Every structure is written in C-alpha cells, then in structure tokens.
Amino acid sequence: MIIGIICSAVAGAFISVQAAVNAKMNVHLGAWATTVLVFVVGLLGSLIPLALFGGNIRGVFDISPIYALGGLLGVGVVFCVMRSIQLLGPTLSVSVILVSQLVWALGVDLFGAFGMPQLALSPGQVIGLMILLLGVVIFKQSQAVALQHESMKEAA
C-alpha cells in the first residue's frame, strides 16, 4: 500500500509540474505543437524502459480497441490542462482537475467501468467529495480576495 501512496504522490507532483511546463511551452509553440512535442518525448521516454525491462507490445492486438482511446484521452488531458492553466492559473486548475478526477474515479468504482471491480459508494465518500468541493470554492474565493488586495496595492 505504501508504494501505491508514494506513486500517487509522485504522479501528483509530475502532473502539476508538467501542467506548468506545458502551459509555458504553449505560449511559445501553440497548443497543438506543444501536445505533439509532449507525446513524442513521452514516446521516446517510454521506449527506453520498454527496451530495458521488456513488455508484451504484441499484446496490443489482443486487447479491445476501446482501450486504445487512452492515447486520445491523453491528448485531451494535455490540451485541456494547458488551456485551464491559461484561463484559471495553476492552483485553481489543479483543484478543479482533482475534483473532476475524483468524481470520475468514483463513477468507475461505482459502475465497475473498464473491467474494474465494482465498489459501492459509501456515505463517507460522498461527504468527502462535498468537503473537497467546498474546499475548491473557499480556495477560489480566497484567491479572488488576494487578487483584489494585490490590485489595490498596485493602484496606490
């Protein structure tokens, strides 16, 4: 379990850093060029561990084509994260993304989507989601207040 928690924490860090880097690249390259570059570099970066540790790359022909949509979803992720950071800033974007991820993950658990085990939704999960949503609202409000104070300082 501890390895799963560590991997989740590292993934969260990577996602946040990647989002900021991609948003900056987007300013210079544009959204689609940035997305292509991210996936080309990702492909090259994935080939190294594949060569070192192996894998069943031929098994790609044995899986349902629906799972190939993961790559297309990845394009949507990179594009939407870049755009949301441009429009909302990094911290608010990541906050909304986290809530969305949790809602969708709960849906996957609840319905057993994509062959995942079906899990019941508990009252604690619903309460936790509501607290997280409230946290994003409070975060957004406090961010707006901080921006107002900053604007007032600059005007003075």
UniProtKB/TrEMBL annotation:
A Pfam family of this chain: DMT_YdcZ
Signal sequence residues: 1-19
Sequence intervals crossing the membrane: 29-54, 66-85, 119-139
InterPro entries per UniProt: YdcZ (IPR006750)
Record's keyword terms, sorted: Membrane, Signal, Transmembrane, Transmembrane helix
A GO CC term assigned to this protein in UniProt: plasma membrane
Protein name as catalogued: Uncharacterized protein conserved in bacteria
